Queue: 4 jobs
Job 1
Amino acid sequence: KVLARVGLTSCAGFLTGCSGVQSALDPHGPAGEELARLIWSFTALCTVIWLMVMGVLAVALVRRRRQAADPLETDVQSEHAASRAVLMAVVATGLVLVCLTVLSFFANRTLAGIGADAELTIEVTGYQWWWAVRYENSEPSRIVTTANEIHIPSGEPVRLVLKSQDVIHSFWVPALHGKLDLVPGVVNTLTLQADRNGTYRGQCAEYCGAQHAHMGVLVIAQPRVEFDAWYEAQLQNAAEPSSELARQGRDLFLNRPCVMCHKVQGTVAASNAGPDLTHVASRKTLAAGTLSMSRGNLAAWIADPQSIKPGTRMPTMNLTGDELNAIAPMEGISRDGCNSGARSLF
Ligand code: CUA
C-alpha cells in the first residue's frame, strides 16, 4: 500500500512537472517547440527500443527455463543463431545512434537559424545568486537596467547576450529555449522568442553554490505596446516620496550601506554590485524568485536575508520595526505585487 502511494505520488509529481510555467514539454516559442519535438522523438525511439529489449529478455528467460529442463538441447546451430542475433543488435544500436545524432544535428541547425534579425539585445549577467539585466541601446540615456525579470515583446526574436561575473551559471527558461551557460570571460548568445503573451519561469541550471536553487528568473512576454510602455516607465527616475513615511524610508536607504551595492536611478545610489532597485516594486518577485513581491516579504527580506537565503551577499541590516515600516512601504504597489504602474522604491 505504502509502495503504491509512493509510486502514485512520484508519478503525479513527475506529471505536474510536465505542465505550467516552467516546462520544456509545454513550449511557447519556436526554439522551445523545436526542442520539444526533439525530446518527443528521442522518447518515442527509446520507448520502442525499451519494449524490444524487454521482449527479447522475456523470450530469453522462457528459453533458458526450457534449456534448464533439457541441458542437451544446446547445439552448434543455436550457438550460430545467438552470434547472429548479437551482431544484429550491434548494427541496430549503431543505426539508432546515427539516427539520434542526425535528429539533434538538424534541431541544432534550426535553433541556430532562429531570430538572426533580432532587433532588441539584452545583456544578462549571472551573479551568485541573481541575474542582472541590461537592455542595450545606442543612446546611453535609453539603456534600461533591471534584475531577475526580463520583459520581452511577444512574437519577436530577442537576442540575449549571456555573461557571468563570478562562477558558471546556466540560463534556462524551459518553455522558450534550451540551457546555455554563462561563463566568466566568455560571451554566449541565445535568441529568445515567445509566441504567446505570458510569464515564463526560468532557473539557473548549473550548480553555482549554496543558493543555486534560489536563482530563478522570470521572462514576461507582452504585446509590443505594453512592452514599450514598460520600457518607458523603467527609464523614469524613482518617484519622489509623496508621504512622510516614504521620505523617511528614502533617507534611511540613502544613509545606510544599501547604497554601497544598489542603484536607484535618480538618487546617489549608483552601485552595480547588487541588483538595480529602480522600480523594484514593479517586479513580481524578490531575491531572484525566492519570494513573491509584497510589502511584508520585502520587509522580511531586508530584516533578515540570511535566514531566507543563507549565504546571500545581502547583509542583515538590524533595522527597528519602525525603520522597516518606513523602508518598505512600496507606494502604489497593488496587493498582488504586479502593478506595472508601481515605479517607486520608496
Ligand atoms: Cu547560478 Cu546555479
Note: The two ends are 55 Å apart (CA to CA).
Job 2
Amino acid sequence: MIPQNMTKFYINGEWVEPVSKTRLGVENPATEEIVCEVALGNDDDADRAIMAARAAFDAWTVTSVAERIALVKRILELYNERYEDFARVMSTEMGAPITWARSAQAWAGQVHLEATIKAAEEMTWEYMRGTTRIVHEGIGVCALITPWNWPMNQIVCKVAPALIAGCTMVLKPSEIAPLSGVLFAQLMHDAGVPKGVFNLVNGDGPGVGTRITSHPEVDMVSFTGSTRAGTAIAAAAAPTVKRVAQELGGKSPNIILASANIAEAVAAGVNAVMSNTGQSCDAPTRMLVPRNRHAEALAAAKEAADAIITGDPLDENTVLGPLVSKLQFEKVQRLIQAGIDEGAELVTGGVGRPADLNRGWFVRPTVFGGVDNSMTISKEEIFGPVLAIQPYDDIDDAVAQANDTVYGLAAYIAGPVEDAKPVARRLRAGTVNLNYPDWDTSAPFGGYKQSGNGREYADWGIHDFCEVKGIVGWG
Ligand code: NAD
C-alpha cells in the first residue's frame, strides 16, 4: 500500500501543498520499481513547519505530563490498529521481508511507544533539593532527522519522548524510505495531536536537513544516521548552540569467548549480523574468535550463512531481503571486493547477486575469515550482510581489537555469563550484549566515541528532550 499525501507536507495540523516543486521517485528495492513520488521540500517549506512548531510551543509545553501521556496512549492505540499497514509500507520502502517487517520493524515502533509511556509514568518530573525546586521541561522546537534502516523504530524513539517532554517538532524522515513517515503523520492527525505540535516535511540532507539544523528558531536537533552527516549537522547547529543528540554509525565487535560453545555462538552471531540485511547500526560485524578455534568458527559460520533464505520480501519464508538502494548495493559490492583484494579469506558469498535473483538490490550473505584490524572490511561500516571473522590470541588481545575502532555503539560477548562480565566492563561501547539477549527497550541506547552522544529509549530518551531548571528559594 502507498499512503495518501506523499506529495504534501503535514504542517500546522493539515496536509499542505509544498512550495518546492521538486519530487523524487520512491523505489521498491526488491523490484526496482518506482512505487510513487515524494515531494522534496525547500527552505520555505522547512521555515513554514518550523514557525508552526514555534507558534505551538508555549501552549503545548504547559500542558500536564498526564495529558501528554494520554495523547501518546492514543497514538499507541491507533498504531496497533494500523500495525499491518506499517509493516507493509516498510516492506515496500526498504525491502524488509514481511515476517521481519511485522516481528521487528513494526514491532519496534510499538514497544518503544509502550516503553516511553511507562517511563514517563514512573519518572520524577519535579522534586525538591534543599530549598530548590528541580523541574524538567521540554527543550523547545526540535528537528528530528531519521534514516531509512529502521524507519518506525527511529521515528518513534524521537517523536514519543519529544511529545512527552513537552516539545514541538519538525520530523524529516529519510528521503529513501518516506512512506512510513507519511503514514505516521496521518496517525498523529487522527490521534488529535494539537496543531503545530508535530509537523512533517520530506526532503534531503542538503535541502530541508540543512535548513532545520541551522534555523535559529530550532532549539534541538535529534539525528540518527551516518557519522558523516552527524558531523555536518553538529557544525550547522553550533552557531546557535542547539542541543544535538546523535545516534551514528557502528562497527560492533562480537567476542566469542574460549569457554563458549563455539558452533552455537558463531551461528547465532551470523544470524544477528545478517538480520535486516545487515543494515543495523549496532550489527555485530566483527566476530573475534580464539585463534586455535578459527577453522571451527569458519565452518560454523559458512553453514549458518548458507542456510539463510534470500528472496522475495513478500514470501513469508524469506529471511533476507535486498539492500535499500542501488547506492548501498554498489557500496557493499565495493567493500566485498576490498576484502578479497586485501587478502581476507572468502568463506562464503562474495560479489554479485545470489543465483536466480537478477532484479532488486540483493546481495549474497558473505563471510570472511582471517581478517585483521588493518583491513577495510574491519574498519568501515559496510551496512550489508557481511561478516568479518578475526582471530585473537588471548582475552587482552580480544579486548584490544574490540576497542580498536573509532566507533563505540555496541559490543557483543558470547560465552558463560560469569566469564563475560569482566570483559563487558572493559569494552568501550554504549551497549554490551551478553549472549544475544532480547531487545531491551528500557536500556540506554547510544554511542561512545564517534558513534554519537545522547541516549535513546524510555527515560533516557525523555531526558534527551528536557532542560532541567532549578527554581532556587522555592521553599
Ligand atoms: P545518512 O546520514 O545519509 O542520512 C540520515 C538522515 O540524515 C536522512 O534523513 C538524510 O536525509 C539526513 N541528512 C543527510 N545529510 C544531512 C545533512 N547534512 N544535514 C541534515 N540532514 C542530513 O544515513 P543513512 O544512509 O540514511 O543511514 C545509514 C547510517 O545511519 C549508517 O551509518 C548507520 O550506522 C546509521 N544509523 C545509526 C543508528 C544509531 O542509532 N546509531 C541507527 C540507524 C542508522
Note: Residues 98-122 form the longest helix (25 residues).
Job 3
Amino acid sequence: MASPALICDTEQWKDLKAHVDDIKKTHLRELMSDSERCKSMMAEFDGILLDYSRQCATLETMNKLFKLAEAACLKEKINKMFDGERINSTENRSVLHVALRAPRDAVINSDGKNVVPDVWNVLDEIRDFSERVRSGSWVGATGKALTNVIAIGIGGSFLGPLFVHTALQTDPEAIECARGRQLRFLANVDPIDVARNITGLNPETTLVVVVSKTFTTAETMLNARTLREWISSALGPEAVSKHMVAVSTNLTLVEKFGIDPKNAFAFWDWVGGRYSVCSAVGVFPLSLQYGFSVVEKFLKGASSIDQHFYSAPFDQNIPVLLGLLSVWNVSFLGYPARAILPYSQALEKLAPHIQQVSMESNGKGVSIHGVALPYEAGEIDFGEPGTNGQHSFYQLIHQGRVIPCDFIGIVKSQQPVYLKGEVVSNHDELMSNFFAQPDALAYGKTPQQLQSENVSQHLIPHKTFSGNRPSLSLLLQSLSAYNVGQLLAFYEHRIAVEGFIWGINSFDQWGVELGKSLASQVRKQLHASRKKGEPVEGFNFSTTTMLNRYLQESSD
Ligand code: F6P
C-alpha cells in the first residue's frame, strides 16, 4: 500500500476526528470504572509494565488508532528503517541507530552491506582503549594515570551520554566500576562552562574526548581549542596526543585538528546526532567511566526493545502504543505538550535528552514530500523528576492547562533507605506520590465532594479539580544499565512512530541552520568592528543597537 500524501486526508484520520466529541463527553472517572477496559489498556514486555488506562481513550479509540497506523503504512515504514532504506530523504541517509546495539551475529544492511561487523570493530576498539586508560597502561604525558575525563560535545553529542551517565551514577554496580574516576561534560560555548569543567582538575590526569559527528560544530570546536590550550600551556604541545582523543564521522577533520585518527572512534552518517548515544558518542566516554561491560548491558537493554518494536503486534507493542497515543493527544484532543515525570532522581536528565530527540525530530512544518502540513506535528516536551516537579509546575497540570503526563516509576531503588521508626521506606514515600498523582489528575475533586468535607463556599471553586487529565504510567523493575537502555529505546521508537504517522521526516534538522548562519555573520562583524574600533552596521535597527551597546560596554 502506498502511503497517503497527507494523513489528514484519509478516512481513518477523519473517523478519529469525528470520534473526538464522544471522548470529550466521557470523563476519565467513568472510563476508569470499566475494569475490562483498564485491563486491556496494559502492556508488558521484558519486565516493564505500561498502564495507559488513564488516557482519554476507549478500546474503540485504540482500534481507530490502529487503523490510522495501517493507513499511514506504519509497519512498512518501521521495516524500511530496520532494512536500512534511505528514509531520511532530505539528507539521503538511512536511519540505523538500531544497528549500534544489535548482537554481534545480527545482519543489518545499509546499501547492501552488513554494518554490524563495523559496529563491533569500533566497540572492540573502545573496549580495548578504555581498558588501557582505566588500568593505567595508557598514561598522560607526565606518566600519570588519566582518571578524569572531560567529554566536549553539544546536542546529540552531549545530552544522551549525560542522561545515561546521570542514571548510572548511583547504580551500585556502576559505582563500583567508576571508583576513583570522574566524567564531566563540556557543552556550552559559554566560558563559564569551561571554568566549571576544569575547576579542580589537573591536566596531567585528564583525558579530553572531543565528540562531534561533523567535527565542525562551532561551540564544540572552540571548546576543543580552549582545552587544547589548557593542556599544552600546562604540559607542552606534545602532550596533546596523550590527552586528547575524538569521536566523529569525520576523521579527516579530526586529524587536521591535531588528534591522531588512531586515537579516534568512528561512527557513520546513518546515525543521527540525537540518536547517537549508542554509538562511540556515548559508549566511549561511558566505557572510560564505568568500563565496557556495564555499557554493554545498556546496549543490550536497548536492543531488547528494538526487537520488541520490530516484531510485536501493534496492540502489544509499547513504542507503537506510546506513539499512537501521543498523536491522539496532540492532533485530535489538541494537547500539544507532554510532561516527562520520572519518579527517580537518577533520571533527572531524561527529559532534557528526550526534548532534543522529540523536538528536533518532530518539530516540522512540512510533510516528507515538502507539502505544508495542515495540522501541527511535534509536541512540546518538558519534565522534572517527581516529587520535585510537584512543588513546581504541577499546579498548572492539575488546575490549569491539560498536559498529558508520562509517569515513570522504579520498583527497586538504586539506593534504598529504611529509617527506623518511619512508617515506610524513603523509596515507598517517593512511590506513594508516583501512584497518587495519576489518579489525582484523572479523577479530580468535585464541588460536591468539597461540600461534604464542609469546605467554605467561597473556596470551593479554588479547591475544585476538574480531573479528566490524561497520563500514562511505566513501571520498571530497577534502574540498571539494562533498564536505562530499554527506556532510551522506548522513547526513540515512540518518537519515530509519531513522525511516521504525521508523515514527516523525523531524521533531519534543517530548522537549526538559520540561527547558525546568522551567528556566523554576527561573529564576522564583531571581529571586524573590534579590530577597527568602529560600530557595526548592516543589521536591522534593533540588532545594530544591541550589538553596538554590547561592543561599547564590553570593551570598556
Ligand atoms: O545543531 C543541531 C545539531 O546538528 C544536532 O543535531 C547535533 O546533535 C548537534 O548539533 C551536534 O552536532 P555535532 O555532533 O556534529 O557536533
Note: The CA atoms of residues 18 and 332 lie 9 Å apart.
Job 4
Amino acid sequence: MNLEKSKKAFIEANQYIPGGVNSPVRAFKSVTINPPFIKEGKGSKIYDIDGNEYVDYVGSWGPLILGHCHPKVVEALKNAAEKGTSFGAPTEIETEMAKLICDAVPSVEMVRMVNSGTEATMSALRLARAYTNKEIIVKFIGNYHGHSDSLLVKAGSGALTHGVPDSPGVPVDIVKNTISAKYNDIEDLKNIFDTCGNNIAAVIIEPVAGNMGVVPSTKEFMTALRDITYKHGSLLIMDEVMTGFRLSYHGAQSLYSVSPDITCFAKIIGGGLPVGAYGGKKEIMEMISPLGPVYQAGTLSGNPLAMAAGVTTLKRLKENPEIYKNIEEKAKRLEEGFKANASSLGIETTINRVGSMLCLYFTKHKVTDFDSAVTSDIGKFAKYFEEMLKEGIYLSPSQFESLFISYTHTDEDIEKTIKANYYAMKKLI
Ligand code: PMP
C-alpha cells in the first residue's frame, strides 16, 4: 500500500500543527502506519492523496449517517453559501432546526445551538449548576464528553474519590467538583448519592457509551439513575452527541423510555459541519441569557451553512425512517460475519453492537464498563487495524471507538469488509 504522498504531507503538517493534526486521534499514534491524508469522499468511500480508496467506517466520527457528499446536503450548502455564510443575526432556518429537534425528542422543549459537542456539554453543566444551585457533577468512567475542564477527569478514579485532572492545565480546584462513577454500577451510584447527594447538580451520561468502544448502559441502570437524580433534585443530562439521531430518530433516550432534563447533541445534527446543541425542559432552558442569568453565547452559533446541512440531514432521516432499519441490518451482518470469522479462526473476540454502532474487542470477557473494555488486547487491535487499512477498510485507529455504518454502505462494502476482517484476523494467529 503506497502512502508516500501522505507521509510527505504529514511531515510538513508536523512543522506547523502540533502532531500534524487538529484532533489527536487523527495522528494514528497507537498504530505504526502514517495517517492517509484524505482528498475526498463520496458515499461510503474516502480517497487519499496517494489514490487509495477505502470503505469508511469512521464517517467523520459519527456525523455522516447519510454518507459523504450526500447530493441534497451538498445542494443545500451551495444554496446557503450563495446567500451569505454568516450574519450573527437571527435566521428562520435556526427555528426550523430547533423545531425539528424538539419534535423529534419529546424531552427537549427548547434548544440552543452551539458549535461542538464540547460546547454543548460544557454549557449544559453550567445551566444545571445554575438551575439547581448545586456544584457537583457526576460523570462515568470511560464516558467522554469533550475537552472542557470540568469533564476532563481521569477515568479510573475511585467512586467517591474526588477527581484529579486528566490533563496538565486543568486546575485541581475545577475538577474537585467532578466525581467519576462506575458505568452500569447501581451500588456505586447509590453510595455517591448517599455521601453527597444534596450537592449534586447533575449526572451526565452517554446512554450508549461510544468512547470506550460501544458499551450500552443497561435499562435497570438508566432507570435507577433517573430515579435517584429525581429523588435528590439533581438533573439528568444525556450526552447524545454520538447517539442522537443515530440509534433512533428520537434519540437513545427513546430506547430506554427515560426522559432526561437536558440532552446534548452534535455530530449528525450538523450533517458534517461544526455544530452542537443542548436542550431540555422549558423551565430549565429559560434560565439561559437573554431570558435568564446563565450566560452562554457564540459568534457562529446557528451558522447558516451548518443549519442548512443539519436541517437537510434531519429531514432526510425524518422522511425516510427505513434508514434506521437499513443501517442496523447492515451492522448486524457485519457483526455476524465478524463473529463467524473469529470462531472459525479460533480468535477470542467480543463484539458489542447497538443499532449502527459496533465495536470488536480482542477479549474473551463481556464488555460492560471501562474495566472490562480495557481487557482488550490493544497490540492485537493495532495489527488488525493496519491489516484492515491495507485491505481498503478505514476504521478508527483506536480500539476504544465505534464503527459507524451509513446509509450509503453497499452490500458489496459489507461483503468486502467481512472478507477483509477474515484476512486481517488470520494475520493475528
Ligand atoms: N460527547 C460525546 C459523547 C462525544 O462522543 C464527543 C466527541 N466524540 C463529544 C461529546 C465532544 O464533541 P466535539 O468533539 O464535537 O467537541
Note: DSSP finds 14 helices and 16 strands in the chain.
